[in-house]
Design brief:
Structural class: alpha+beta
Number of helices: 3
Shape: globular
Strand order of the largest sheet: 3-5-7-8-9-10
Order of helices and strands: HEEHEEEEEHEEEEE
Largest sheet: 6 strands, mixed
Helix content: 10-25%
Distance between the termini: 40 Å
Length: about 190
Amino acid sequence: MERHWPRPPVDGYTVDDLFTLPDLPRHTELIDGSLVFASPQNNFHADVTYLLVNGLRMTLPAELKVRRDMTVILDRRNGPEPDVSVIRKAADTGPDQMSYQATDVLLAIEVVSPASESRDRTTKPWKYAAAGIPHFWLVDMAGPDDHPVVQVHELGKATGTYALTGIYHDRVKLSVPYAIDIDLTAIDEL
């Protein structure tokens, strides 16, 4: 069977294309007008995502929601899919919703994967900051026990870029963007 791959427009794809092109694989992202297909995730990625989603929900204020693998529209040519997002509950329109606007995202989290390492470390944080998402976490596998390490960043109002505010190895305990306390060592129980 011969595959017919979509031929990109001269100016690249837009977020409208991302939602209307038929038969795109699940979790396709739009970066700079190019479609980016997701690679299969490994156990570390799945376990860390699960741990973070559950940990963030434990102390979540009523006006917020935690989402995983949802498109965030940054502009007409960029619709990445953070591994985890904290969004304003008012932006949630129901079960058929497929995306959120960057202005509705309070925190975007990327768990570094081998297939997307450069995008997770450089491209996405830069784009999230440019779109005004106030908080960003980058999660890596590190140390002899391959546990998650969380780098917490906050958007500087004067610079419009992220500043590293802390690196967490065993526990993420923060007061912003809300009171958060996540035991990273609980990954051993998953």
